[in-house]
Amino acid sequence: MIYGIGCDIAEVARFEKWVESGSLCERFFNEAEQWTGKAKARASWEHYAARFAAKEAFSKALGTGFSGLVLKDFWVVKDEAGKPSFAFAPSVQALLDARAGAGARVHLSLSHEKSFAIAYVVIESKDGASGASTGEISG
User: Fold this and answer.
1) Which residues pair with 116 in a beta bridge?
2) Does the predicted model carry a pTM greater than 0.90?
């Protein structure tokens, strides 16, 4: 059963300043998702824009906004084929389990094109918990 859906879009150019200063990237992004490319150019802006959109989309799908979440405590990872997913610190995993039920699956899609990056998140509840049907979470 679908627990929640979240979508967010980010303007790529906004992240040029983040990359130049470095401090905002360190503040909001886990070490595992820091840009590792050689040039701090457009590719790095797209990298961060997509990941920030993913964090926003996840918070919307979870139904919490950023309340109770530390942005560095959940991050985007990619498998060997390049498919993105999230990794969670124990605090975020506990919040996800409490809201959507143990065993909930989180699906993530990322894309960027020229000026914008977009992320789409679907949280699938294993036990039938639903945040979408009533707007209330029991537990």
Assistant:
1) 11, 113
2) no
Q: What is the pLDDT of residue 126?
A: 84
* Catalytic status, residue 126: no
Catalytic member of 55, 60, 83, 107 = 60
Within 8 A by CB and 6+ apart from 93, the residues are: none
Can you tell me the distance from the alpha carbon of 108 to that of 79, in angstroms, rounded to the nearest whole number?
12
Question: Is-contact 92 103, C-beta < 8 A?
Answer: no
Rounded Cα distance between 58 and 64, Å, is 9
Integer Cα distance of 123 and 5 in angstroms: 6
pLDDT in tens, 53-82: 999 999 999 999 999 899 999 999 999 999
CA distance between the termini of the chain: 17
Which of these is catalytic: 107, 112, 114, 126? Answer: 112
Show the CA angle centred on residue 54, arms to residues 51 and 58, nearest 5°: 145
- Is residue 60 part of the annotated active site? The answer reads yes
